[in-house]
Amino acid sequence: MIRKIEILGEAAARVSPELRSEHPQIPWRDIIGMRNRLTHAYFDIDLGIVLSTVQAFLPSLFEDLVAIQRRTRRE
Questions:
Q1: Which listed residue (3, 14, 40, 70) is catalytic?
Q2: What DSSP assignment string belongs to 21-71?
Q3: By CB neighbour count within 10 A (0-12 exposed, 13-18 middle, 19+ buried), where does 35 fall?
């Protein structure tokens, strides 16, 4: 689970500023920040926070990202 969040954050960091500004509903900075925290705070990670974040935000985030991907592929 943590590795997948790290990958998501790495991918978010590579999204162009233009695309980010077109989709302000996506918490780009938070996604990247969580990736950085998980990657560099080895022994200071609260797994409860990680789990609650995944449960609360990942399903809708996934839907939003899939919709963005579909739109950008059509353009």
A1: 40
A2: HH-TTS-HHHHHHHHHHHHH-TT---HHHHHHHHHHHHHHHHHHHHHHHHH
A3: buried
Structure tokens at 41: 């705070």
Residue 40 annotated in active site: yes
Asked if residue 47 lies in contact with residue 73, where contact means CB atoms within 8 angstroms, the answer is no
- This prediction's pTM: 0.85
Q: How do residues 22-74 score in pLDDT, each as one tens digit?
A: 999 999 999 999 999 999 987 889 999 999 999 999 999 999 999 999 998 98
Structure tokens given for 68: 């963005």
Q: Where are the domains of the chain?
A: 2-74
35 is catalytic: yes
Measured between alpha carbons, how far is 52 from 18 in angstroms, rounded to an integer?
30
